[in-house]
Amino acid sequence: AFAAGFEMLRRTALAELARIGMESDYPLGDQFDPHRHEAVGHRPGEPEGRILHVVRRGWSAPHGMTRAAQV
Fold it and tell me: Are β-strands 58-61 and 23-25 bridged in parallel, bridged antiparallel, or unpaired?
C-alpha cells in the first residue's frame, strides 16, 4: 500500500511539472553537450563525448536550463 501511494504521488508530481512546462533530461547515450550536461567522471578507453552513465537527470523549463544533468 505504501509503495502504491508513493508511486501515485510521484506520477502526480511529474504530471504537475510537465503541466507547467518542466522537462526531464536523461541523456544516456547522447553526445555530451557542456551547455546541458555537467561532467562528473570519465572512463578511459571509452568513446570520447558519448554519455555512458547518468548520475543525476537534468531539468529544463520554458525559460531555459534549470539543472544540468550530471553525467
Answer: antiparallel
